[in-house]
């Protein structure tokens, strides 16, 4: 049922992704104007992500009816296949943000969704199914939902679960999301619907993260309250360097909702990855869909990993920096398994593992 | 996940409908070649059923994408709206039969479904979506499923939850369901997949129950182990009389799986109900769909009620026999609320309240 109040009013808040999960949702990629070769290589990569998570917690895969029998027939262990019409497969962004209270109850936040920019700058049209992914997820989980008027994708914010939200100015202040809201109004609504007390505003996302205009979940993620990982680039000639430096300076200058200084752990990005001729060849060209052009640089980052129960699901790129990322995360999470997925095919669609997953907390 | 064993092998059995439920599933009626006036009057009746059940336990409504926003917008309390493609809205028959063990576990049985007779005598074509309703229900409930080869609709059997199954010969032996199976093979598979020990074979269903060829859930239902209600007709001139008499004689001649004689409580059917000219006027005529013809007699019966937690959801017909049915059921279930629904619109589509509901037991 749709509620008229806000989570903060009702004593609900968004837990950290590191809190225990009930399950993880994904959507199944399909659209041939974003994913090459009828999305078959991307589907293979998604399947690896699904199976890696399903080793650790239940997975629910939402599928358009057109792909339902294909996915059902995979008969994957610990994986539910549900019909869930979608325009593209980024459930981090279109899915529900689950909020909990201290009394074993859960509710959903069903943010407005406009395909990363609506008719002004959205990356596909229409987004009618995606705007109801969160409602369907809420109803499958039998929870009531809040429906803020504001446009926000789940990849645009991270929380420590203790009152702090982290976002990027690039995304949250972009004129194609909420042009009629001031920064203060956006901050207020983010806090109302996540139950947070303080918003930290990173200036930048990852260079060339143009689909999302710089989602925070590609550049910075909490690894504990008071501690974050940041995508880093040593080479001062690379445009990513300046972005990472500015974000680091910001993070070193602020305190979180509890008044703590933040510890920042750098994780170097992989070497520059660009779309090849071959990779761009078998993508449908459709008016209104963001094109994938040979030579375009992709926003590759290890920060776009996903925390599930007992594991980190980490994108790797067969890159010299892979080992550093694995080692750093293993040190940060000594009790977790680091499940690596070669994720170039997901990146080709514009995001990575964090973008295609959405957790449901355990209550 | 699809399992290769059977519930009986694994220690699972189908509980009685009277055991406590987690929730109830329905599908949303839509097809204009079965339901008059674009299904709008039927939808209004279904909505009353949904809201009556939702007073007592959670309800999940499965909806084709084409009707999703309409149903979501009703914002019904204690009701989840999930996308679930279907050909018609008889989830008793297309949905999963849930089975449980003694250790808090649940699984689903996903019977074969062929729209009550396949290409030989089915009442609509195709039934491709309906054949996966049970799988989708299982996955929404996060349970694994058994997939018997045999065709069986959920309305074709009732159990007392103590080892006895009751069916009709008319349905279970019809040549358009399982022509290659003997009566003994059908009995064996029914027992394997419901965990029962003994099948009772009523000779007849309700007169003119031609869609289903005489489903048991329109003529006889357990009200307790060892005790059933039976649709009755006093008038010996009415074709229903002979059917009820034969069924009564059978019931008085047998014992259940525990060796008990059965107590039979009669509930008189309503007066004859036929389709009016007006009711048949606004139904699309489609080749392959069972037609609704003015003057055709409908298989009206009070036995097609539904047991939910704390209530009986009872179809009534503004008929002189309504009061008797209400009184008898109230006496049989003194602790339950009798929720009456004027159900002529559901009957016009070929079934009634039991046919459109499917319980998920609480484990």
What does this protein structure show overall?
The structure is a homodimer of 363-residue chains. Chain A is α/β, with parallel strands linked by helices. Chain A has a single domain (2-361), classed as L-arginine/glycine Amidinotransferase, Chain A (5-stranded Propeller). Chain A is built from 12 helices and 17 strands. In chain A, the strands form 5 sheets. A 4-stranded mixed beta sheet of chain A has the order 1-7-6-5, covered by helices on one side. In chain A, helix 9 (239-253) links the parallel strand 12 and strand 13. The first copy, chain A, starts with a strand and ends with a strand. The interface between A and B is medium-sized, with 27 and 27 residues.
Radius of gyration of chain A equals 19 Å
Low-confidence stretches of chain A: none
Number of domains as seen in the coordinates of chain A: 1
Provide the CATH topology of chain A: L-arginine/glycine Amidinotransferase, Chain A
Most extensive interface between two protein chains, with residue counts = A-B, 27 and 27 residues
């Amino acid at each position: 049922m749709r509620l008229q109040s806000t989570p903060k009013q009702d004593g609900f808040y968004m837990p950290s992704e590191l809190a225990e999960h009930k399950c993880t949702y994904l959507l199944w990629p399909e659209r041939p104007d974003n994913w090459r070769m009828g999305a078959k290589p991307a589907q293979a990569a998604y399947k690896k992500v699904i199976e890696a998570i399903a080793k650790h917690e239940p997975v629910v895969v939402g599928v358009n009816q057109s792909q339902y029998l294909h996915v059902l027939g995979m008969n994957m262990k610990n994986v539910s296949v549900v019909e869930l019409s979608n325009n593209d497969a980024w459930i981090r962004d279109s899915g529900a943000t689950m909020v909990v209270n201290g009394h074993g109850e859960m509710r959903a936040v069903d943010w407005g969704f406009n395909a990363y920019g609506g008719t002004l700058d959205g990356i596909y049209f229409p987004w009618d199914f995606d705007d109801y992914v969160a409602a369907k997820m809420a109803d499958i989980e039998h929870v009531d939902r809040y429906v803020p008027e504001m446009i926000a994708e789940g990849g645009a914010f991270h929380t420590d679960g203790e009152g702090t939200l982290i976002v990027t100015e690039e995304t949250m202040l972009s004129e194609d999301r909420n042009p009629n809201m001031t920064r203060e109004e956006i901050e207020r609504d983010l806090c109302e619907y996540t139950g947070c007390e303080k918003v930290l505003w990173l200036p930048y996302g990852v260079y060339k993260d143009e689909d999302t205009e710089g989602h925070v979940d590609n550049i910075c993620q909490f690894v504990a309250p008071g501690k974050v990982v940041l995508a880093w680039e040593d080479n001062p000639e690379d445009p990513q360097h300046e972005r990472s430096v500015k974000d680091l300076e910001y993070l070193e200058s602020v305190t979180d909702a509890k008044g703590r200084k933040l510890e920042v752990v750098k994780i170097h990005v992989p070497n520059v990855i660009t779309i090849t001729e071959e990779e761009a060849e078998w993508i449908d060209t459709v008016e209104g869909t963001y094109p994938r052009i040979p030579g375009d640089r992709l926003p590759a980052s290890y920060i776009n990993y996903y925390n599930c129960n007992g594991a980190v699901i980490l994108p790797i790129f067969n890159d010299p920096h892979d080992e550093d990322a694995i080692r750093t995360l293993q040190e940060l999470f000594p009790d977790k398994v680091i499940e690596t997925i070669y994720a170039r095919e997901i990146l080709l669609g514009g995001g990575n593992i964090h973008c295609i997953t959405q957790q449901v907390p355990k209550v």
